[in-house]
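Example record used in the benchmark description.
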Amino acid sequence: MVKRKTYRTIFFLILVVSRMCVVQASDTTKVNKTRLYMVAGATTLTLAGTYYYLQNVWWNEDKTSFKIDWDMDYRYARNLDKTGHFFGGMITAELFDAAFIWAGVPKKRSIWYAAAAGNVIQTFIELKDAFAPTYGFSLGDWGAGTLGSCIPLLQHYYPKTKAITFKMSYYRHHDYYYQQFPYAQLIDDYMNQTYWLSVSVNDWLPKGSRIEKIWPDFLTIAGGWGTDETLNYYYKGVNLEENKGKGREEFYLSIDVDWRKIIKQRTTFNRVLSYSLNCIKLPMPTVRFAPGTKWYPFYL
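Model output (structure tokens):
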């Protein structure tokens, strides 16, 4: 059964999002109140379900006093988890922004409310970790999530940055993690995750230039970051203090596609579809240049 403190936290998050919706509904006659309350209801159910899951998977241990993690968190998974927090914050804010716009909230307001909602959720996660015996409040995790939540704001006020998309890819190159932990969570399997920064080249080339005419509009260049199988040393559960920082960082260079340039952005469905596809890096010819050089015809 969910503990009493769980209900209090759920109520707090519901209150924050619902308050945003109420303010918007009373602030402008253009807002579709029915849709706005649908957003609040869907958010409530999602937050409650997510919290219940995390309460039983991550936070089911006895509560301790507030603490900040200044050490182990910055050696964990070669800090690839910070990129995960960034990615999660960005997607959360973009989803809220899309939901508010669907409900009729003006863009200049929805983008700020979306960033605030993303920040509230990221802060809440870290506050819960701060009282868990095996975790602690991580300024690095919180900062990465907060920065990710502000990416839609950056792209709204500086349109040239829309040429940059952040993606991820996942493939089980190594099964060691799952062999050690039968109930392992994919979200923590960092050795099989790769995060990418993809740049739509033509958006930054001088219009009408020779290279701009030659370069395919949809073709992008992507840089990737991951960690290799030596991260296994930590998952062995032996000498955690010594092995928590193990694992070599991997860096990649690849090509990719910007689905916004392939799918016509004429309908809401098309925009949602292209956005969703743009979150995932396609298997493409790739070069790994650290550790060591390796060529992949199609990197997964």
